[in-house]
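Narrative of activities, Objective 1.

The group set out to show that a structural description can be obtained from nothing but a protein's sequence at a throughput compatible with the screening campaign. Below is one input-output pair from the validation batch, recorded exactly as produced.
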Amino acid sequence: MEAIGVNEQTPREIVEELDKYIVGQDEAKRSVAIALRNRWRSRQLTGQMKEEVIPKNILMIGSTGVGKTEIARRLAKLVRAPFLKVEATKFTEVGYVGRDVDSMIRDLVESAVHMVRAERMQSVQDKAAVQAEERIIDVFVPETKKVQNPLGRLFGGDDEEEKPEKEEPKKYAAGREWVRKRLNAGELENKVIEIEVEVQSKPVGGIFGGSFDGGMGDNIQDMLGSIMPKRRKKRKVTVAQARKIFTQEEAEKLIDMESVTDEAVRTTEYSGIIFLDEIDKVAVRGNSSGNDVSREGVQRDILPIVEGSTVMTKYGPVKTDHILFIAAGAFHVSKPSDLIPELQGRFPIRVELKSLRKEDFRRILTEPQNALIKQYQALLATEGVTLTFNDDAINRIAELACDVNEQSEDIGARRLHTLLEKLLEEVSFNAPELDDKDVVIDAAYVDKRLSDIVVNQDVSQFIL
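Output recorded for this entry:
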């Protein structure tokens, strides 16, 4: 397994992987692939040059539903690196109600900590499983305890203990081996046992929600949480459930959290990726007034994070100089030039995603591994329904999606969700009672079910 934050795939391989889920938008895919490969190249550098080479941030421009967010989602799964998708509109200028921009870095570090911790725990699973099995055996065959004179324990003057019989250790060992054999044979998996589990303390949950910034609140909660003693409670679970619980607890004991956080911070600084969506919503058009003042304030708050600064987190200071930022927006009302000049300069790579046409819709319906038609076929197959789409039906759906987007708001591929849900409404409703489980969708069926959309220009009732 390659290290976290190191993506060995070539740009061509990255594009091929994205092609499995996203139709078209080759320019955007190439830009993202090159940016990821440059992260790998920068890691191969040494000395001063490694610090000097900073990522070239990307600004993706395109209507809603053309694939901006989908590229980000697939990128998150493709890249073994800390990744965060965040909307620019959730931030507000300091002094207004909302989250501060530093929180995106704190969230990114949290993501990195979870990744590193999960990898470390995976590496000690075998050892943790062995220790978990011993704890299960302890439940079935408790260790023989030596009984001390209670008066001697009270006054400390009687150290003599009642010693168990000589045969007892042999019986104890034999009992453990007998349980171990039954466990290995899987005979006890469903047996219910009583165990003690650790209860996570939440001493200050919600107390500081409105009073402190997110980072400070987290630090205070962590500090008080470490002071409070850990509570344990008894639970009745099956042996199979107990094995999972004990394995988790033992794995946590085997990893060094200080080492985990150090690696997480380092990985965040040199491999972190932040997808900043809805950036056009904070762009300022013309003279600033009213809400525009707050929007420009958000841009100025985002600027130092993108330029490179140090953000304090509960895991220590994190430098943002080498974090890759990918911003995206529809820019229907505003333009990229409406962003403040300093922020524009920090996104040197501009990619315009194209609006979807009939052929794109047809490919979206059938080609991706998670294509909508494949999803509906899989869903209805759970009730024994075999759903078949003829080519003329697919072409008709694509044509309708294109027409409706032109007549009303262009919401891209999301239009297909609306049309298919309406198209298959009757089949989905009647699926459990259908006598004929073979359902064929042709162009005539599409026209029949979607006749309102075909005839009526006002399709607002089908949009929302």
